[in-house]
Amino acid sequence: MTELSLQKIEAIAPDQASLQAARKLMKPGIWSGLSTASAGLVWGECQGSGAAPYRVVISEPDSGYKCTCPSRKFPCKHSLALMWMRVEGKAAFADAAPPAWVQDWLRRRRPAAKSDAGDEAADESAPRPAKNIALTASEEAATVDPISEARAAAARERSRLERESSVTAGMDDLDQWLTDQIDMGIAAFAANPGKACRLIAQRLVDAKAGGLANRLDELPGYLYTLPDAMRPVAAIKELGQLHLLAEAWRRQDSLDPELRADLRREIGWSLTREALLDDRSALRTTGTWRIFATIEEAQQDRLRRFETWMWRESPGDGPRFAVLIDFVPLAAGGARNPWLKGERLEATLVFYPSPLALRAIIGNMEGSAQACHQEMQLPDSGLEAAWASWESALALKPWLRVWPLQFRGTQVRRSGQQYYLCSTQTAIALPILRPQAEMVAPLLCVERVDGFALWDGSWIRMCLGQTQLGFWGMP
Amino acid sequence: MPILLGGTRRQPLPDLALSPAEEPARALHVLSLVGQALRFERPPAPAQFTVEHWPRDERRLLPPNLRGKLVDLLYSRKCADASERILAWTFARTRLRPHPFDFPSIREFVRKYAQHLGVAAQHWAQRDTPAERRNEYFDAEEISAKNWTEAPRAGRLRFLEDMRQHDPAAARELLASAWGREEPETRLRLLAALQTGLTEADREFLKTLDKDRAPRVRMLAQRLLAKLPGASGENPALRSCLSRIQKLQKGKLRRSVALKLELPANVKEQAASRWIQEQFEGVCLEELANALEISADDMPSAAKEDPNLLFALALMASREKHFALLESITHLLPDAWGRMSAVDDEEPSFSDAAERQEWARALVHPAQWNPEVPYPAWDWLLRRLEGPLPQPVMDELLRSKWWSEQAASDPPPRPEVIQVICALCPPQPRGQLRGQVEALAPESNLEGLLLLDILERLESFA
Known about the structure:
The complex is a heterodimer. Chain A is α+β, with helices and mostly antiparallel strands. Chain A is built from 14 helices and 16 strands. Chain A has a six-stranded antiparallel sheet. Among the domains of chain B are: 2-40, no CATH class; 97-227, no CATH class; 235-350, no CATH class. Chain B contains 25 helices and four strands. Chain B has helices spanning 2-6, 25-40, 64-75, 81-94, 107-117, 119-125, 153-166, 168-178, 184-192, 203-208, 215-227, 236-242, 272-279, 285-292, 299-302, 307-319, 323-332, 336-342, 353-363, 374-385, 391-399, 401-408, 415-424, 430-438, 442-461, and strands at residues 60-61, 96-97, 245-250, 256-261. In chain B, the strands form two sheets. In chain B, strands 1-2 form a two-stranded parallel sheet. A two-stranded antiparallel sheet of chain B has the order 3-4. Chain B is elongated.
């Protein structure tokens, strides 16, 4: 049935480098859910460098394709790799019904487009560089020169030491800046945080402490979402954390390894996916995971951040919650979080080292994530227990920003224009994020809500609710 | 904390046992400790919560697997008014309701059509309205003579028409008791209900309307009076019409009557329909026929050469629910309904769905004519029918040359045209229509297919 061929793949590949990159992805081990349906639909999920696999679908009859990766090349290496594996029969494709994300693509695509990659149009007039699949085999695995490798390692170590020193200097500047704010009064800072934060954020970027710089860039926007009366106290909480991080940085050698690793990531040191997977001591938890929140935010550093929050449905030891975090350039335009709330997946998650295992990547997945509308069997713990979990988490990781809460037996109530998530048993009432007011208002008509939310120290973000009327917050 | 907020330049921090002795380390230490302590503090609960009064809604919720489709359709930029309308009526007819958790996503739909969607939707639509200006919540089956004035207008009209069928005097008294407080448009609509079961007993009330502030109300009252036995016959509107109608004798061997309507010189062709509608509003068929000394049944053939007069006759026949006559007119003037849609004619008010269907069968002949600008005309028809076309009419439409041309056109039909045709389709031919719509381009057919899916599932679930 397939009308794809190696010649066709060569013809549509944007350049030789894409073919080269695609060849490296032709390992069935990094693909999951490889499937096919009638009418020449083929799809699968490919683990890339992000926390979550990319979803790739191709249409054999007309060489259509779609991938959720942020690449600006069309077709991307994932699409090419999938076509290539299909043509060469290098992987097994199961017969299956197209999942929701494939059907969504089918519904939206224009028929028989030259390029099926959204807004990009192929420039027919530009000379196209020669591409040859055969050449990709000969360019594989260049031999390693030990001397060059040693020089590179030494350079990396010098660079690391320079960066450590730079960050330390940045922390000193941060403390000086904090001292100035204390001197003038936090209330004055909270009234006009923008310019002050921008300057110190820039300094921290220069000091290669990008994680802290992001915190400072986001701080004014966060304060402006709060009522005037709440801003000074919120500012004390946020600025207090900044000094805490700076001081922890200075004392990092005396910290537990996991706390130290978490601290360094918070400051801006990154741990690559490959390094995490190679770390045999990294915590791994296998189970059935349900996605209860997907969040997308544009950051000041021109990156779009995708958060996918999950809860482990299956019993057993290990963390109950996980968050996958991916970043794509804002310039990638229409990139979307490939996951949908409510989806269920069978996966092994690998957690970043931390005293509080939360951020993770997908080590491997069985099959694809499936849409699921079954009710979850939630533990019988209420909002008090959820609050206690926040307190425990904060004690373990003092700079924790957001914590997931799972609860049963709560109610949404209103006082004036402010909505609250309230326990039906005790007096605890947590204020709900104001932009969510209209979305949560219908929950006033049910007597009980079980579900999930995120707490950021000031507000509850309601994520998913199970009620007598069915799910709230499910797409 | 006050010192942190006000600034240490105004007041230094006190000595604290756990903090460093020197500045600035001490201030920073205190900042972190205070900040962290605040993060462990539970936010205070408000002193009191608002007591919510969500009404109990007896209707069933729509099937869970339809929620996403409904939101997808209503949230789409290409969702047409026709789709919203047919969905609202279908919810009302099947006694189902949208899920309240979806109200924020479909807020405009809920706001516009709350009276069809159940009491929970009505509560939601009014939640930002001050309590003193809110309407009572109503579901159609709950209207009675006691709460009639609080109900939405459409419900009140139906209640009154029903009441006229078994107790016309009580219906008239109910109307009369509320008359003085009603808006002109409402008075006009409700007065039309007196056409049902019109008797001599209504005369007194109708005569009082001679002084009504609204001209159209006065004209309707006069028309109703003219139908009563012993009417004086003096109808200024009739006189005016007669002055514009020429009656000619044609043929040499077999003399036949020909009627011709002369438009005023200052009425252009594009304004003719509106002028005709206004001119003939106060005239009924029987009195016109009597005045012309020709039977009402013979008037269409006498006017067959004059589209404008045929249109006037169509308006009157439609208004008076003279469906057999209407059908004979529209076979001579198949674009009559197109002209009615252009003037947005709102007559007659129908008693029930069966009457609407009969009217449509008499009025619409897709094999003979279809509108050049399809959406406004078909949408008008949908609004008048408050539901799908009769099946024979729909079958004719799907076989028509116009529809075949639409399906084959390049570019494809606009999405709103597909949606209004889907909205007008009764259950039986939907399968055939679906097959034709599926063959169209996705940018044209997506919303139409969603609409068909939802309608079918709502009706089968009810």
